[in-house]
């Protein structure tokens, strides 16, 4: 149940899904961090942070990505930008793209994840769509549930996979550094794109147009 404490045990054995070697991953990340580098900084237990970040209660490196470029954009930049009552295009604050980069990665090994996609997937972990669709205010709870799922699915579960909140036709994922081999990810050979450059902003606005959104104009 949303915001409740997890039960003692999983009600069912969660399904596993293999992402095969060669799968492309699209990542929007801080340009100061290497494309294949996991974030080593635990989120606060209560404030800030992402849906399935580590905390001091369960420290691990984490890496978010999308199985499409649209999922990466929507999950990283657009997930908390609401529609305007006037139906005007949603404006993405320029600070959200400052220092951000798009990189394309390739899985060098098969990776096994716990899918949180269907109602059956979620029921197996005693949850519903709230777990993967909750807004940022609920992330302290989703992190706690993520830690609980990690603890009960064991080291073979190398990450989670779920529908992107703003592009549910595509998938977002998180991978865990303590469960993925060091060589699981490699650069796909596609030049990275800095989103705070004129070229990057133009490209990003092309993607955002389909979601009735745009980067806010420069002051």
What is the terminal separation in angstroms?
44 Å
- Poorly predicted ranges: none
Fraction of helical residues: 10-25%
What does the largest sheet look like?
5 strands, mixed
Which series of helices and strands comes N to C?
Answer: EEEHEEEHHHEEEEHE
Radius of gyration, in Å, reads: 17 Å
Given helix and strand content, the structural type is alpha+beta
> How many separate helices?
5
Beta-strand fraction estimate: 15-25%
Give the integer mean of the pLDDT values.
95
Protein name: RES family NAD+ phosphorylase
Organism: Streptomyces boetiae
State the gist of this model.
The protein is an alpha+beta fold and about 220 residues long. It contains five helices and eleven strands, in the order βββαβββαααββββαβ.
Question: Can you characterise this structure?
Answer:
This protein has a domain of 141 residues. Helix content is 21%, strand content 23%. The chain has 5 helices and 11 strands. Strand 7 and strand 8 form a beta hairpin. The longest helix is centred in the middle third of the chain and has 15 residues. The chain is globular and about 50 Å long. The mean pLDDT is 95.
């Amino acid at each position: 149940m949303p915001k409740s404490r997890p039960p003692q045990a999983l009600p069912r054995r969660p399904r596993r899904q293999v992402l095969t070697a060669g799968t492309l991953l699209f990542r929007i990340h801080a340009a100061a961090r290497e494309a294949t580098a996991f974030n080593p900084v635990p989120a606060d237990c209560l404030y800030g942070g992402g849906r399935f970040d580590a905390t001091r209660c369960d420290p691990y490196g984490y890496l978010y990505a999308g199985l499409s470029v649209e999922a990466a954009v929507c999950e990283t930049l657009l997930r908390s930008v609401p529609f305007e009552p006037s139906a005007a295009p949603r404006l993405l604050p320029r600070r959200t793209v400052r220092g951000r980069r798009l990189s394309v990665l390739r899985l060098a090994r098969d990776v096994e994840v716990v899918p949180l996609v269907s109602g059956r997937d979620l029921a197996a972990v005693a949850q519903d769509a709230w777990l993967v669709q909750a807004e940022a205010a609920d992330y302290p709870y989703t992190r706690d549930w993520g830690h609980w799922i990690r603890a009960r699915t064991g080291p073979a579960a190398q990450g989670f996979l779920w529908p992107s909140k703003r592009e549910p036709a595509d998938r977002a994922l998180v991978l865990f550094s303590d469960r993925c081999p060091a060589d699981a990810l490699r650069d796909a050979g596609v030049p990275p794109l800095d989103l705070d450059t004129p070229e990057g902003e133009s490209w990003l606005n092309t993607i955002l147009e389909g979601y009735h959104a745009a980067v806010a104009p420069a002051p």
